[in-house]
Design goal:
This protein is 64% helix and 5% strand. It is mainly alpha-helical. The chain has two domains: 63 residues, Winged helix-like DNA-binding domain superfamily/Winged helix DNA-binding domain (Arc Repressor Mutant, subunit A, Orthogonal Bundle); 133 residues, GntR ligand-binding domain-like (Four Helix Bundle (Hemerythrin (Met), subunit A)). A three-stranded antiparallel β-sheet has the order 1-3-2. Strand 2 and strand 3 form a beta hairpin. Helix 2 packs across helix 3, helix 4 packs across helix 6 and helix 5 packs antiparallel against helix 8. The longest helix has 24 residues. The chain is globular, with a radius of gyration of 18 Å. The chain starts with 7 loop residues before the first helix and ends in an 8-residue tail after the last helix.
Length: 212
């Protein structure tokens, strides 16, 4: 199966997100079109399209006559995002568990879990976030909830998630527990484990220096 082609605007948008993890871009930073054109060697229309995509994802914000900048979240905004994700991931885990016995579902879950379990500290945070997001979307797909899969694809914690002080071991143990519950077919336990996993991120917000 041929991998889908990635447009230039997708490439620019993805690199800006990666730059958040690597410190090349920071919350509140202006996204100046001429600078981005020079940095990426693309047209101004491509840069504008990339900014539109980042804005749609809640990563950037644009204001008439003031241009665009990377969104800077306060503590309340970050908390609200995580509370929404907690509900969504909990629902995804429950529905995945309820349909885990359907053909191919166990294999799909195992496939997305394995790279998370193998992840080492050497794996950069952006790549780990991509594995995590794929795990979330797969739960929704296994549950037969296309709407939830679409929502989770656009719900992210790129603005602050990489700064949360949660160890790799804790993260992997959370994914393992969610998967064990889903594979057992116990929807209630799967939802509880998924919500507890996001709760750790909510509790870790105190480690960040965010404005109230």
């Amino acid at each position: 199966m041929t991998a889908p082609k990635i447009s230039s605007s997708d490439t620019v948008a993805r690199d800006i997100v990666r730059g958040l993890y690597e410190g090349r871009f920071v919350p509140g930073q202006r996204l100046v079109e001429p600078d981005l054109v020079a940095r990426y060697g693309v047209s101004r229309s491509t840069v504008r399209e990339a900014i539109k995509k980042l804005t749609a994802q809640g990563i950037a914000e644009s204001h008439l006559n003031r241009g665009a900048r990377i969104r800077q979240l306060g503590r309340v905004d970050a908390m609200n995002i995580l509370l929404i994700i907690q509900q969504l991931v909990g629902l995804a885990a429950r529905q995945a568990a309820e349909r885990i016995h359907e053909p191919g579902n166990r294999e799909q879950l195992t496939e997305v879990l394995e790279p998370l379990m193998r992840a080492s500290p050497a794996l950069d945070k952006f790549e780990f976030a991509r594995l995590r997001n794929r795990f979330h979307r797969t739960l929704a797909r296994l549950g037969g909830n296309a709407e939830l899969e679409s929502i989770l694809a656009n719900m992210n914690v790129h603005m602050f998630g990489h700064r949360l002080e949660i160890s790799l071991e804790q993260r992997r143990e959370s994914y393992r527990k969610i998967s064990v519950a889903v594979l057992s077919g116990n929807g209630a336990v799967a939802e509880t484990e998924a919500r507890a996993y996001v709760r750790r991120s909510i509790d870790a917000l105190d480690t960040l220096h965010l404005e109230d």
